[in-house]
Amino acid sequence: MSGGGPPRALCAILALGSLACTTDPARDSGEPSLDGPEWAIPTDGCELSPGSFEDVTIQQTEVPAVMRVSWRTAGVAASGLRFTNQDGSSELVATPLGSQGEHHEALVIGLPPQADGALRIVSDDGSTTRCSAALGFTTGGLPPSFPPLDATVHMEGSLAPGFIPTTINAVPDSYLVVLDKHGRPVWWKTTGYTPRLLHDPEAMTLTAWGRDPASEKDDEEKEKEKENAEGGLTSWSYDGESYTFRPSGVHSIDHAALPEGGFAVLALEQRAYRTAEGRRNIIGGRIVELRDDGSTVPVWSVFDLEEPDLSVEYPVDASVGEHAEDWTHVNAMGYDPVQDAYYVSISFWDTIARVDRPTGSTTWLLGGERSELEEEGQLVSGPHDISPLPDGGLLVFNRWIGAESCAAGTEIAIDAEAGTARAVQHIGTEPCVDNPYIGGANRLSNGNNLMVYSSAGRMIELTAEGALVKEIDLPTGAWFGYAAPFTSFYPEG
Amino acid sequence: MLPRPQRAPRLRRATPWCALAMLLVDAAAGCALPADTGGPEGCESCALEDQHASSLGLGLSVESTPLSSGEDALLDWSALGEDMLGRPVERCEALDLATLYLFGDASEEEVLANLSRDRMGQSEVVAQWTCEPQGCGCSLADFSFLGHPLVPALDFTTERGGTWLLTLAGGEASGLRSVAFLNPSPQPGADTLPLTDDTARAELELQLAPRALEVPAGSVDYEVSWAGVNIDGWGLPLDHYRLDRARLDRLETGVAELSLELLALDVLSPDRWQAEVAGLTELPMHQLEGSAPFEGVDRDATWLFTLWCDSCAISLPRVTALLEAQE
Q1: How close is the nearest chain B Cα to the Cα of A198, in Å?
Q2: How far is residue B307 from each of residues B46, B243, B267, B310, measured CA to CA in Å?
Q3: Which residues in chain A are contacts of B309 at CB distance < 8 A?
Q4: Residues A132, B145: Cα–Cα separation, whole Å
Q5: Do A320 and B104 touch (CB under 8 A)?
């Protein structure tokens, strides 16, 4: 499971700030320096005291752009890092100071590959805040099979801060990846196909659906049934060197993190019906929760809404092992922790279902023939990803397949008491982008919108007014999964 | 409220029976090559720069075959003996990844032009489907994408338009092995697309750089660095991280012949050495491995140093340079 980057750096700054680099044949490209760029790392609020930090090592991890820094403070103190990119293209980050002690370790994460970084160690012993000299280092590079990203920033000053975890599905290798605000990869891991990568700053993990990494060496890709049976959620540490795997036994379509820990999974559900013509396998969808106590709890099923019309022949779903018909095409879910509600995209119905999590009941259906809310115009068409908004609205990625318009985000305001829904805005570009598969729309921290045209291998960031801020394109054959933006790798405060 | 984004009007274009794209990148011609010296003692770190890197012009000729609109058809590569770069296809069963791309607005000529530069963008692709063949062919109906099967009656139609490209990969050689255009035709057409050695053919023109890199003769105690190469053989920015293999060929062929015969490098080269270079921008030459130990370059042969991207679609060197022994 080694990342294919350039040689690693392993250097140490010994007591009193003297620099020593050990020459590890496999790890010899770093250039830590006491003459690091002082300008890049402010000493605001700390006393410059290089002698307070000893045995400093800066080392690439299994994810070559992530650096592990370890050090010792002269006495018991809480200690952490301030770091950035020497060219100023990454924001200054301060890691949490951590617990009191003499031996400390922290990860530098969020810098692009082969970047010259600079860091300063900070400590607080309760009476004095001290900081080290600025130290330089170089992050590792991308593996050769990583698809080249064509990222263009049009409005630097309008970029939303933060990161975009997503997946890049390609031949010969697919990747879990986190992009920075400029569209540069800062974290990556090879994987099989998976739609979503979720970040948990408290656990400092990144979680995706897939096979147990321990079985990566199997000839797995052609064994769909085995894949379904052994699928589960893998939570990777930032350094890529450890993981936890939660098997589920369900065929996941999408997943969301739960506030108390654990995950909700939108999964395929297959039921068999006997007809005069014989047995028919009909696929719907359900939500199950994989809770931290190890239990799997069913919450909701589309079969609870109605039964399939057996006079209709539904399209074949080629992703399951035996002949099965895709009745509803549930394809994405969103979770709103404020309302404790799930939203499920039922694409063949052009419908969004709101599910009350505590009861598992369907609160309402929006869109299509089954809509229970009165709509102003058509709001839902071939939906995919759903992002709940803080004001109770939704941002829905509509594919508009076969329509005059094509893929776009639709911000929807919902008045459940009045039983109405209306479009606040449609989000996209002219001319628009055909995107028949997957896709998402996300609200970013500064109010910008991120449009993910997944199968078109394209992401764009737009201001709230619709101006193009940046665009990221993939080469032919490569395409994105969903995005789930976040602002910091580190816990708040 | 903003209106919904509208689809741009789509232009219909005539589809040629056979398309040819030939891209020649700016290059200075030259056969008698001056060499950069590494100083009186020779270089220990010999730096390749853009002035040493040669230019490639790749031309692809790819057949376009009409098939009946709305009907299933068999894509059959059982007769494929050689791939589009002239490399032998060991067993047709080894070609185990077939992908169909539907380009919305790009013509066959435009698709070929971008393919020739290994710079096709996914945003041009309206839909794609893959097939894992059980033998040496796939029917259109065998293709799917994330559980969505290709339905010929709905997808492979004249009405839907677009440009259909089949790509084949797999086997011992890296990159694409063959490609073909499919053309849904309103007229009754064939129900089989047989891929042969002539379905797709590449022509390559190598324009050697005006300068060779001079390196110590008869020595392996130096390294070749390519950190200073910024432009690839196609004349596009070089993604250094994508380079994964270095190769050094000792050729009896003269420089002029080499320009025309790069596709036959395996045949031309009696001796070759290789090394993995993923993540590196320099290679200590003693790390080169071949059937015989590498003992350094001499002035009795032509020495060709190439850097490759084996995970790229087009398996051709990204950087090509001549090394010249400094006595």
Answers
A1: 21
A2: 15, 6, 18, 10
A3: 144
A4: 53
A5: no
Residues A113-140, mean pLDDT to the nearest whole number = 94
Contact between B234 and B25 under an 8 Å Cβ cutoff? The reply is: yes
Contacts with A, B 147-206, CB within 8 Å: 147-149, 151, 169
Nearest CA in chain A to B238: A148
pLDDT band at A30 (very low <50, low <70, confident <90, very high): very low
Least confident segment among A61-70, A167-176, A226-235, B108-117: A226-235
Interface mutation target, options A398, A434, A465, chain B, most CBs of B under 10 Å: A434
Which residues, numbered 218 to 277 in chain B, qualify as contacts with chain A under a Cβ-Cβ cut-off of 8 Å?
A: 239-244
pLDDT of residue A222: 47
In a 13 Å sphere around the CA of A133, the CA atoms on its Cβ side amount to 19
Residue A33 has pLDDT above 50, yes or no: no
- Strands, sheet with A468-473, edge to edge from the N-terminal-most edge strand: A150-153, A468-473, A458-462, A449-453, A440-443
CA–CA distance, A81 with A101 (Å, rounded to integer): 15
Compare all CA atoms of chain A with the CA of B3 and give the residue at the minimum distance: A426
What ipTM goes with this model?
0.84
**Whole-structure pTM value:** 0.89
Q: Give me the residue label for tokens 């062929």.
A: B253
Percent of chain A with pLDDT over 90: 73
What is the number of CB-based contacts under 8 A between chain A and chain B? 148
- If you count them, how many residues does chain A have? 493
Give me the half-sphere count of Cα atoms (radius 13 Å) on the Cβ side of residue B274. Answer: 12
What string of H, E and C letters represents the secondary structure of A256-278?
EECCCCCEEEEEEEEEEEEECCE
B311: closest CA among A171, A285, A194? A171
Question: What backbone torsions phi and psi does residue A322 show, to the nearest 5 degrees?
Answer: -110, 165
Mutate to test the interface with B, among A325, A476, A480, A482 (most CBs of B within 10 A): A476
- Select from B28, B136, B118 the least CA-distant residue to B81: B136
CA distance A483 to B110: 31
Residues 238-277 of A with CB under 8 A from B: none
**Chain A residues 185-204 with CB within 8 Å of chain B:** 193
CA distance A422 to A438: 23
Q: What amino acid occupies position A91?
A: E
Give residue A12's pLDDT: 36
pLDDT tens digits for B241-260?
999 999 999 998 877 777 76
- On the question of pLDDT at B16 being above 60, the answer is no
Contact (Cβ atoms closer than 8 angstroms) between residue A163 and residue A186: yes
Segment 133-152 of chain B within 8 Å of chain A by CB: 144-149, 151
What span, in angstroms and rounded, lies between the C-alpha atoms of B266 and B133? 29
Closest chain B CA to residue A481? B146
Phi-psi region of A26 (alpha: psi -120 to 50; beta: other; left: phi over 0): alpha
Count of beta carbons in the 10 Å neighbourhood of residue B68: 19
Give pLDDT, residue B36: 53
Q: Which residue, among A66, A112, A105, A70, has the nearest Cα to A89 in the 3D structure?
A: A112
Nearest to B303 by CA among B276, B280, B326: B326
Range ranked top by mean pLDDT from A204-213, A239-248, A417-426: A417-426
Number of other residues whose CB lies within 10 A of the CB of residue A233: 23
Sequence-separated contacts (24+) of A210-218 with Cβ below 8 Å: A210/A234, A212/A245, A212/A247, A213/A1, A213/A243, A213/A245, A214/A245, A216/A1
> Which of B7, B124, B145 is the closest to A437 by Cβ?
B145
pLDDT number for residue A318? 78
Question: Which residues does chain B have within 8 Å of residue A144's beta carbon, measured at their own beta carbons?
Answer: 241-244, 278-279, 309-311
